[in-house]
Amino acid sequence: AMARYAAEDAAPARRTLRSIPRVRGIISEKAFRERFMDANEPCVVEGVGIDWGLRRFVDAAGAPDVAALARAFGDADVPVVDASTKKATTMPLRRFAEIWTESM
After folding, report:
1. How much is the pLDDT for 32?
2. Taking a C-beta distance cutoff of 8 angstroms, is the pair 88, 79 a contact?
3. DSSP 3
4. Most buried residue, 6, 89, 97, 102, by CB count within 10 Å?
5. What percent of the chain has pLDDT over 70?
6. Regarding beta strands 22-23 and 44-45, do their DSSP bridges make them parallel or antiparallel, or are they unpaired?
7. Residue 97: per-residue pLDDT
C-alpha cells in the first residue's frame, strides 16, 4: 500500500516513501482540515467509535461476531456474493450467519 501511495502521489518529487501519520485523541475540525484535507494528505484516525456500541458485534480477536449480529439484525436483508460463482444476491442476515458458521 505504501508503494502504491508513493506511486500515485501527485507530487512524487517532493515526497519519499513514508509512514502515514496517525491522529490520536481530539483534533479540531479546523486543524484536521488544514493538516490533512486541504493538503490532500492521508491519515489514520484512531479511537473513533470506541463508545458507539458497535464493539459488541466484534469478538476479542477483532473478528466480526456474526452470531451477535444475527441475533440483533437477523431479519435484515444483506447483499451476498457467492465466491465460487461470483453471483450476487440478498438473503436475511440470519441465513448468512448460518452459512458463515458452517464454513468456519
Report:
1. 92
2. yes
3. H
4. 97
5. 83
6. parallel
7. 94
